[in-house]
Structures are given as C-alpha cells and as structure tokens.
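Quiz preparation item.
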C-alpha cells in the first residue's frame, strides 16, 4: 500500500470455521461467520475509505451510535435514505465482489475514534480511528 493511495481499504470476509461456543452465524453456511477483516481502520483526516465485500452475504459499513445533526442531515444527499437519524458515515449495502465508497468521512475530525458496524449483522463491529 503506497502513501499516495487516496483511500484506506476495508475488507469484509467470510471467516473460517466458527469456534464451537461462538454465536450462530447471522448469514452464510452453517459453521461460518462473516466479519470485518479490518476491525480497526486508521485513516488520516480527510482520507476516504473504499469498502470491499468478498463474502457471499451482503454487508455495509455504517457509523454505530453516531449521527449527523438534523440540520446537517437535511443538507446531506445520502441521508434521504434514512428515516429519522442519519448515521455520521455510511456505505451502501453491497454484495459479493462489489466495492463502495464510504460517505460522510469528510466531516470526521483528527484525533477522534468511532465505532462502525454492519446494519445487517450487528455482531460485525469495528473501530475507525482518525489521525
Ligand atoms: Cu453484514
């Protein structure tokens, strides 16, 4: 990965065999569980993220318990997809082999960290660190 690359990459993968005591997988074949292959994502302020899905199930990349103000949400085009609260950042839901840009990252400030998750599989969580 070269510093010149504009966007950090976030991958979601189907992990191998699930430990016997793990919770049942929300999707995918029995005994397997999907997760973010990059549960901690570090970006610089102003940097973008490209989200890739290599799993057979659809996934997205959405801020967890962090929302735009109502005023900011009204000015943000992609917030029209949400009733009520609009997440601070968001990617469209994508299927296997697809990629999407994460929207809303330009408003994030250096020095902060945020939780993210998949709205379809709430066990899929991670941390986004903004340098
Ligand atoms: Cu998911």
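Solution:
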């Amino acid at each position: 990965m070269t510093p010149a690359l504009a966007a950090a990459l976030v991958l979601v993968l189907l992990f191998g065999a699930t430990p016997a005591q793990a919770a049942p997988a929300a999707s995918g074949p029995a005994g397997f569980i999907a997760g973010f292959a990059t549960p901690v994502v570090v970006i610089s302020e102003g940097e973008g993220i490209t989200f890739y899905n290599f799993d057979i199930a659809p996934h997205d990349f959405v801020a967890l318990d962090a929302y735009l103000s109502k005023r900011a949400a009204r000015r943000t085009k992609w917030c029209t997809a949400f009733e009520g609260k609009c997440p601070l950042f968001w990617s469209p839901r994508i299927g296997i082999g697809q990629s999407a840009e994460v929207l809303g990252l330009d408003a994030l400030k250096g020095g902060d960290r945020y939780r993210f998750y998949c709205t379809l599989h709430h066990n899929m969580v991670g941390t986004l660190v903004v340098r």
